[in-house]
Amino acid sequence: MESPAMKKRVLLIDDEARVRTSLKMVLEPNYEILQAADAQEGLDTFRKEGPDLVLLDVVLPGTDGLAVLETLRSESRMTPVIMLTGTKSVKTAVDAMKLGAADYLSKPFDVEELRIVVDRALSSQALEREVKQLRAQVVQRYAFHNLIGKSQGMQEIYAKIEQVADSRTTVLITGESGTGKELVAKALHYNSGRRERPFIALNCAALPETLIESELFGHEKGSFTDATARRVGQFELANTGTLFLDEIGDLSAMTQAKLLRVLQEREFTRIGGVQSIKVDVRIVAATNRNLEDMVRKGQFREDLYYRINVISLFLPPLRERGEDIPLLAKHFLAKRVEEEKRPHIEFGKEALEVLTRYPWPGNVREMENIIEQAFIWSQNCPQITQEHLPTIMKSDSRSSSLRDDTLAGRMSLEKAVMEFEREIILDALKRTNYVQTHAANLLGISRRMLKYRMDTLGIGRPDSGNSQEPDPPVQE
Ligand SMILES: Nc1ncnc2c1ncn2[C@@H]1O[C@H](COP(=O)(O)OP(=O)(O)OP(=O)(O)O)[C@@H](O)[C@H]1O
């Protein structure tokens, strides 16, 4: 890391000593200045000193400044070059920008403009560096071996990821909510040749029907009432990378038709636009709905289904991969211990048994939340015990009586599931003092979904007399 006191270094390449002196005077308080009077000296200094920024005159004795610019850019794409041009050479300035100059300044310079242009070029360079570093970190984080699980089901997933990551084939990931579909989509991306390119995730269920098309394909200014400016859609943003379409079963018939066209032709038009835009995007889709069934019922286009279902990956629910449960629980606990720099803590034997027996309706996401709570409640304890786990996880007798009633035909499956859900939601609400946002976080669902489930199951707030306020309306 560079120390904040270290000055950035600026190389001035200009044959006129007078110009170099005035540039130096303006910049010296903030930067360390290196100087060169011709192209060769400039390139030598650049190679030897590795400055952070170059100010380069377009007219140099015997050499064209643009040729020097090309050499500089080919040797270091990260170092910004600002061109110094005569007042009349607008065309040269444009050519320079095309060749990758960060900016240009016309002589004679305005002192303030000079400072601004130099500062701006250096801060966008710093930003570019940061993005590169972050991308590299993300690549490491989502390398597929970071998916936790040793069960047969997960091993099959790993093998498939390895087989298909590096092709452009469309992949459909299915599985219940919270089983790790988005994580698998990322693993596909970060194990492919596209790993340095964008990974864009779009949840098709989270957007109202009216917005989804503009979100996907973008729109031209004025194409509808709210379209006050041109907007680039996710397809364009994901170009050369991967577009992850979550909850694809929630797309309307019209959007399904448009998506099919993009998948077939690899091109589309923005809403209100006429120009066809070609894209190279790898599509990974996911759903927790039964698409085959939706096709049978006419709710999902059959042709689109076959297009996206070229390769399918099914993520089994957590309850069907019991051996992954202790592994995942220890992983999430270790992660929290490290984040909070707390002393080592482990699960007691009985707590681990409770975790293993529990059916995990919210899958891995639910587990992450429950371990988070247990971690908080176990402050100062050397072990996580049953006491640190939610009551519902231990209410074996209640869940077995629901199961017995269902299997004996005394209760429908639907009713038993609702009863079970009702108890979990009530438990979460009690634990969070009825603060719905916190309860929703605990359950790993949105507040909107929690409110919807509470309404469906008839769960109200605890009776607090007349002071009870109505629930705030749920926004679309
Ligand atoms: N095998 C795994 N190893 C480690 N973490 C996991 C694993 N599976 C899921 N997770 C974690 O569980 C949480 C939920 O995963 P994810 O969002 O990928 O699920 P999903 O199936 O896409 O859910 P939904 O259908 O609700 O969108 C995330 O925080 C994810 O990091």
TrEMBL record:
Region annotated Disordered, chain positions: 457-476
Keyword Transcription: yes
Keyword Transcription regulation listed: yes
Database matches in InterPro entries: AAA+_ATPase, AAA_lid_NorR, CheY-like_superfamily, Homeodomain-like_sf, HTH_Fis, P-loop_NTPase, Sig_transdc_resp-reg_receiver, Sigma_54_int
Gene3D superfamilies: 1.10.8.60, 3.40.50.2300, Homeodomain-like (1.10.10.60), P-loop containing nucleotide triphosphate hydrolases (3.40.50.300)
Residues found modified as 4-aspartylphosphate: D57
SMART domains: AAA, REC
GO molecular function, one term: ATP binding
Response regulatory domain mapped to chain residues: 9-122
Record domain Sigma-54 factor interaction: where: 147-376
Keywords: ATP-binding, Nucleotide-binding, Phosphoprotein, Transcription, Transcription regulation
GO biological process, one term: regulation of DNA-templated transcription
Protein name (Swiss-Prot/TrEMBL): Acetoacetate metabolism regulatory protein AtoC
Organismal lineage: Bacteria, Pseudomonadati, Nitrospirota, Nitrospiria, Nitrospirales
